[in-house]
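Appendix C reproduces, verbatim, an entry submitted by the partner laboratory led by Prof. M.T., so that reviewers can inspect both the input and the predicted structure.
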Amino acid sequence: MVGWLRRKSEKAQPSAATTDESTPWRGGDLIAEPMPVSVGRQGRKTVPGVLLSAGEVQVRLHADELRQLAAGKLDIVESVGDEPLAFLARASAAAPDSLAAEQTRDLPADSVVPLPASTTSPPIAVLTGDALADFTRWARGLTG
């Protein structure tokens, strides 16, 4: 069996396109901060994540899923952790007869919004245009 080990001299260099682990993103009413999230039954293991804040609402997301949303591979990302269930979703991903469709009805189809699962109120933050493009660039650079 062949081992796929690297010698110390062949160590991979971090890509210049990655987001610095401490660099938060801010745009409009939304703040996204790289932060580990707990996984597993007992929460002892952590993986790269993002704390998304809009006003009083805070949502933790897996960094990998957020990167996939930014790359167009996912349309909805579900929160993780002990906070109430929430989603970060493209407005176009809402099923026509869903609560999310009511909340995003007047938004551009390509906008991205954080949606708490337990409310019928309109989104407290909406990413569109330049803010969405900037957030997408930031999210694509997340590590993990």
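The first helix runs from residue 63 to 70. Additional entries are available on request from the coordinating office.
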